[in-house]
Design a protein that fits this description.
Blueprint (H helix, E strand, L loop, with lengths): L20 H10 L21 E4 L2 E4 L9 E4 L3 E2 L6 E2 L9 H14 L4 E5 L23 H16 L3 E5 L7 H7 L12 H7 L1 H22 L6 E5 L5 E3 L11 E3 L6 E3 L3 H26 L5 E5 L32 E3 L2 H7 L4 E6 L8 H6 L10 E7 L8 H15 L9 E4 L3 H4 L20 H6 L10
Helix pairs in contact: 2-3, 3-6, 4-6, 5-6, 6-7, 7-8
Length: 467
């Protein structure tokens, strides 16, 4: 799992029922940011990537109408303390344009990949980093950060690589605080910390503003290269926390502000339905925001599996999990419950679902891992936006390489089949080995430079990802 930002919603205590449809529509119709100057046209002879779309269970090229299967890696740069790292990939003063160009060229030219996934650090003025840090420009975003991000996507486009942007959280600055406050009574006290991002109407409105601003300001810099953005991802991994409100109350009723529907918090069914409906409404709001800036853009959401956090399935979010056979042994995850991919696919306008898997020992099955979150029942495409090899599970990198290829092939038989695979990561165990446990995972470019895992996964060696 990629490291989360070192800021949490709990530092702003984010409900009484408020109907928001009119407010959301007005906010989006009014626009949230002034567009940046249009980017210069690509150099003569430079191909502009075709737009990728999805229909049914397939990604396809809108010009050739051929199926498109995303294959590639996550590209990660981190900074900060080991216990609270943040994504520094596009941080002004730290962004390495030349290094990014070499990576993109290697992915395409040497290996045959077509996609890279990156993380946008929302940051904020109090944190001193990220797209939301000072000096804040139009849309509450830092122009220099957007410039670096646009440079990366432009280089990717020139290399024939598509970019998937993961945009966690909301920038922590006054601009987005003001968006939260546009909802009467917000922030609401009945959804706290991480749960507030998905249930509190003020935070949802701020997230809409952020996604629309990010899409508008980035694409105006990219010009024709905007089609190199494969998708905007609302969150790296959505988790609801049962040690935070409203799930921690364990009794009474909770009203979902987006709909006015109420849920019995004293029953597993009530809590599970709230998770599912709340995430679907949040996802619809996010899609609406991106499409207000780019009606053709794909939008996705990142999700871990129940299995990964020690849960057997959609278990109704038990309020306490301190001991017993169903309680995970990793303390960090005992109150974490991932969003439900089946519901968000069926009840929202999300285009596809991005699932993350990290094979474990002891007879691990990727089919069982994905089935713990209902992936075989998905009504829309899913991809493995993170597929990683833990060194404690695979002491021998050669075994890891073979099994990564095996797990990729096996994912093709889950449900209607995975439609994309992005290895985690390109090289972070080399670049940031002691920061945020990144050294725990093998990368495509393993430290001795032999590229064993890349040799197993690269399309130039294995043209058929399911063969």
């Amino acid at each position: 799992m990629a490291p989360a930002p070192n800021a949490a919603a709990g530092s702003r205590k984010p409900g009484r029922s408020v109907r928001l449809a009119a407010l959301l529509a007005l906010a989006l119709a009014a626009g949230t940011a002034a567009a940046a100057p249009a980017a210069a046209a690509p150099p003569p002879g430079t191909p502009v990537p075709d737009r990728i779309a999805s229909t049914g269970n397939t990604f396809f090229d809108t010009v050739t109408h051929l199926e498109f299967l995303p294959r590639g890696a996550n590209y990660v740069r981190l900074a900060g303390p080991a216990g609270a790292p943040w994504h520094s990939t596009f941080e002004p003063g730290l962004y390495d344009s030349a290094g990014a160009g070499r990576m993109l060229n290697f992915l395409k030219t040497a290996s045959g990949y077509n996609t890279v996934r990156v993380f946008v650090d929302s940051g904020g003025t109090g944190l001193g980093h990220g797209i939301g840090a000072n000096p804040v420009g139009p849309g509450g975003l830092r122009a220099a950060y957007l410039d670096g991000l646009a440079d990366f996507v432009s280089q990717a486009a020139a290399n024939g690589i598509y970019v998937m942007l993961s945009a966690d959280s909301v920038p922590f600055n006054r601009y987005y605080d003001d968006w939260v406050a546009k909802v009467p009574g917000a922030p609401f006290p009945d959804a706290t910390d991480f749960n507030s991002y998905y249930l509190d109407p003020g935070w949802i409105l701020a997230k809409q503003a952020y996604l629309q601003n990010l899409t508008t300001l980035l694409e105006s810099r990219l010009g024709a290269y905007r089609t190199a953005i494969l998708a905007y991802e609302t969150d790296n991994e959505v988790f609801f926390h049962t040690d935070e409100l409203p799930f921690s109350q364990g009794a009474g009723r909770y009203t979902l502000h987006a709909t006015g529907d109420t849920y019995d918090m004293g029953t597993p069914a009530g809590r599970q339905n709230l998770l599912q409906d709340g995430l679907a409404k949040y996802a619809n709001a996010a899609v609406q925001a991106v499409h207000a800036a780019d009606a053709q853009a794909l939008v996705t959401v990142g999700l871990g599996t129940n299995f990964a956090v020690g849960k057997a399935g959609q278990t109704g979010l038990p309020v306490r999990c301190d001991a017993g056979p169903s309680c995970p042994t990793v303390p960090l995850y005992k109150y974490w419950y991932p969003g439900d991919p089946v519901t968000v696919a069926a009840k929202s306008a999300i285009d596809f679902v991005d699932m993350h898997v990290y094979p474990q020992g002891g007879g691990y099955s990727i089919a069982a891992d994905l089935a713990s979150s209902g992936v075989p029942n998905l009504s829309k495409p899913f991809m493995l936006g993170e597929l990683g090899a833990d060194k404690t599970v695979y002491p021998d990198i050669r075994v890891a390489a073979v099994d990564m290829r095996t797990k990729q092939v096996q994912s093709c038989a889950v449900g209607r089949g995975a439609k994309g695979w992005l290895f985690f990561t390109y090289d972070s165990d080399i670049v940031v080995p002691n920061l945020g446990n990144q050294g725990r995972y093998y990368s495509l470019l393993d430290p001795d430079g032999s590229g064993i895992i890349n040799g197993a996964l690269a399309p130039v060696r294995n043209p058929s990802p399911c063969g």
